[in-house]
Design brief:
With about 190 residues, the protein is mostly beta strands. It is about 10% helix and about 50% strand. A 7-stranded mixed barrel has the order 3-4-5-7-8-10-11.
Length: about 190
């Protein structure tokens, strides 16, 4: 599934299921990836059609995103279905220092090898209230080792209020992260 491009409507349905599953991948709120790598940290500011400011724990590592194929993932924030989080993904191994452009997930579909994307989830404490998908932007890696990846991101997103998924909302999410190495568990998605 991650190798082929998908139609925007199928992508949104898949992304919604993926977003909910990815954000819920750990039951330990001090370790977003479900591993033993510590907490790391990040901050995020969301402006535009929706707004929020949040910070918290951050973990990064490689995850099996399809049988025999792995990608690098950074999970910044909440691990519950109801919380705020930023998921940065690259269909690549741990990135080197540099600036990387993100794809438009609303039109391109799933990641192809070497591509980057971001998923933003906002929640009200009970349910997710907003899902946003990268439409461009950049992630800058300033330090990269197996134990920790540091960087920043500035990414426009287009998404929807989960209560009204037919009304697109455009926003921007920006911040910094220091994600520690850990186990990033991605559950099977039916």
């Amino acid at each position: 599934m991650f190798i082929q491009r998908m139609t925007p409507s199928l992508l949104r349905a898949t992304a919604l299921v993926s977003a909910l599953a990815l954000v819920a991948c750990s039951s330990d709120p001090t370790d977003p990836g479900g591993g033993s790598g510590g907490t790391g940290s990040f901050d995020a500011t969301v402006t535009g059609g929706v707004s929020a400011t949040f910070s918290g724990a951050a973990v990064q590592g490689e995850a099996d995103i399809e049988t025999g194929q792995s990608g690098w993932i950074a999970i910044l924030g909440s691990t519950s279905l109801s919380g705020n989080s930023v998921l940065i993904a690259c269909f690549c191994s741990r990135p080197a220092n540099g600036t990387y452009s993100l794809i438009d997930l609303n039109t391109a579909g799933d990641l192809l090898p070497g591509e980057w994307a971001l998923l933003l989830t906002l929640g009200d404490g009970t349910t997710p209230t907003y899902l946003g998908f990268s439409t461009g932007g950049t992630v800058t890696i300033t330090s990269s080792s197996a134990g920790q990846v540091d960087g920043s991101y500035n990414v426009p997103v287009s998404g929807f209020d989960t209560a009204n998924p037919t009304a697109p909302t455009v926003a921007n999410v920006a911040g910094n992260f220091s994600a520690v190495g850990g186990t990033v568990n991605l559950p099977e998605i039916p």
